[in-house]
Specification:
336 residues; alpha/beta; Rossmann fold; 2 domains; five-stranded parallel β-sheet; 17% strand; elongated
Length: 336
């Protein structure tokens, strides 16, 4: 190794592949590289815990790299106390810093040379990955390809398609995922229903399984999503079906709504699309509420559940192609 101890720092707001490239280049030249996350009190910064996680994720297999944080009491990067930051870094490292690495956008400003007298300063060209965190913050979807996968998940929009049975949810979810070239989450209830031996054999505890299975499927799909993740139903839809089948007859009547509503509160979906039941009802082997008046009443019940939980949704109706075009336009607006 050319250097014993090296340092590379930044706010990483957000971390991008240019940063990752710099970390790799620096680590290749040091016995020990310290990657420093500088944190201010700015409300415009992404949570420092999120950024720390990203750095740990991309360096966890780099045995000579250590990530740590330093904190500044100022409100922005522009008012950052560079001298205090340098002292905090030196105190943490506790030994001479042989080299400070920086992107070449800092070259000529003489910041590192003043703060780290006695250390060599190496500027890494941005020519291969000429991207900045500022550009990404202004339009993350334009520069999505420059984000590490762990950061992409942070920016991925989540769109949930809801509605009563036989309103085209599953077909629409698949078609939207094809159009946006992304992953989607199927309705977990279908898996559990098959395991239970059919809809008529479902028991209350199966609905707990649906809640947790759906969240697991969502986590797995998010890792492969491209800017947007399309989700078929959510925990409140599971609550709706539970209440249709078991409310007033189950020992879980108190606990199940609480759990379903807590999961819903944690979802933080960016868009709910509510499909009105104005297409033909089709039996797929799992459906039981096909009469028009029953569909209308159940549609009302579902909206009441969503309203009670402060879910803001956009109603979509019309034939299958109208639903597809409307939903597609709504999602494209999210990604501007």
């Amino acid at each position: 190794m050319k250097y014993k101890v090296g340092m590379y720092g930044g706010s990483f707001n957000p971390l991008h592949l240019g940063h990752v490239n710099n970390i790799i280049i620096a680590a290749n030249q040091c016995e020990k590289l310290y990657v420093v996350l500088s944190v201010t009190k700015s409300k415009n910064e992404i949570s420092h815990k999120e950024r720390f996680m990203w750095l740990k994720n991309v360096t966890n297999d780099m045995e000579n790299v250590e990530v740590f944080e330093i904190f500044d009491n100022n409100d922005s990067k522009e008012s950052y106390d560079w001298e205090k930051g340098a002292e905090d870094i030196k105190t943490y490292i506790g030994q001479p810093i042989d080299v400070v690495f920086s992107g070449d956008d800092y070259q000529g400003r003489n910041i590192w040379e003043k703060l780290y007298e006695g250390s060599e300063v190496v500027y890494i060209p941005r020519s291969n990955l000429n991207i900045s965190s500022t550009q990404i913050r202004q339009n993350p979807y334009k520069y999505f390809e420059y984000l590490p996968n762990v950061v992409k998940k942070y920016y991925t929009k989540k769109v949930c398609i809801v509605g009563t049975e036989s309103c085209g949810k599953s077909t629409l979810v698949r078609n939207l995922a094809k159009y946006f070239n992304t992953a989607y989450v199927e309705e977990a209830g279908r898996y559990i229903c098959d395991d239970a031996g059919g809809i008529d054999n479902m028991q209350p505890y199966h609905y707990f399984e649906i809640l947790f299975k759906h969240k697991q499927l969502e986590k797995e799909a998010l890792a492969n999503a491209n800017k947007v993740l399309i989700i078929d139903t959510d925990s409140l839809i599971t609550l709706y079906y539970y209440q249709l089948g078991f409310e007033g007859t189950s020992d879980y009547d108190v606990h199940f709504p609480q759990i379903a509503e807590c999961i819903s509160a944690l979802n933080n979906y960016d868009l709910y699309i509510f499909l009105e039941p104005d297409v033909e009802w089709v039996q797929d082997g799992t459906r039981t509420y096909g009469e028009d008046d029953v569909r209308a009443e159940n549609n009302k019940k579902l909206k009441e559940i969503l309203d009670r939980n402060n879910i803001q949704y956009i109603s979509v109706s019309g034939d299958y192609n109208q639903r597809y075009e409307t939903s597609k336009n709504l999602i494209e607006e999210l990604l501007i």
